[in-house]
Each structure stands twice: as C-alpha cells, then as structure tokens.
Specification:
6-stranded mixed β-sheet, globular, single chain, alpha+beta, 26% helix, Nuclear Transport Factor 2, Chain: A
Length: 131
C-alpha cells in the first residue's frame, strides 16, 4: 500500500516544469526527465534523450514570440511494483506571430518513474486537437 500522496507529488512536479518553461529555463525543464526520456511531439519529431529535448526547448525559447507551454494534469494514476505514475491531461502552447497570439492545444500522457533522484518523466506523448 502506498503511504504517501505520490499523485500530488507528480502534480507539483508538473507545475514546477510548467514554471521552468515560463522562465525559459531549458536546463530546468529537462531536470524533470529521466536520461531515457522519449517524447512524441504533436505534429513534430520524436525526441529521445535529455540532449535532444534540451536542444528543442532551447531553440523554441530563443524565439521572441515563444509564449510557452502549460500542461494541466486531469488524472494521475499511481501503480506499484515498480512504483510509477501515469499522468493524463491537456496542454496548450502559445506563440506571438505578427502581433497575434497563436495557440496549439491538445491532450497528453506522461509516464513517471521513481529513480534514485526522485520522480522523473520517462515518456510523454502529445496529440494536437483540432480547433
């Protein structure tokens, strides 16, 4: 039986990850990821490993119109043996293009695992939803 509120831990880490994106801190963003991270980007490439994810975030964050991403968990399910968590929710990304705000949004899922360094994301999948 789980004795801690691991789901709350995952939600807090997601909030901190969102804050790192808002601060345009690519190093902090990838600090929540496991070395084996795999990210399926909505409409984009599959990113494997921390360096690829860091580079992708740094490139976007360098764009003047980048407004960030916010991921909002709707469900966090914790499993034992091995201890892991599945997170599902909605995401929105914003950019300013020619003076207008452009939004892309959709659903996401993430898998978290406990490592010696704490909870880390091992997999994320982002899907874009039609307008």
């Amino acid at each position: 039986m789980l004795t801690r509120d691991y789901a709350a831990d995952v939600r807090l880490l997601r909030q901190q990850s969102n804050e790192a994106i808002a601060a345009r801190d690519a190093d902090r963003v990838v600090s929540f990821m496991d070395a084996s991270i795999e990210v399926a980007v909505a409409g984009g490439p599959a990113l494997r490993g921390i360096p690829a994810n860091r580079d992708a975030f740094a490139q976007q964050m360098a764009e003047p119109g980048f407004g960030g991403y916010v991921r909002t968990p709707e469900q966090v399910t914790v499993h034992e043996s091995p201890l892991r968590a599945d997170e599902r929710g909605m995401w929105v990304g914003r950019w300013r293009v020619q003076g207008r705000v452009h939004e892309q949004r959709g659903a996401y899922s993430a898998e978290w695992r406990v490592t010696p360094a704490g909870w880390r994301i091992v997999r994320e999948v982002y899907r874009e939803l039609p307008d």
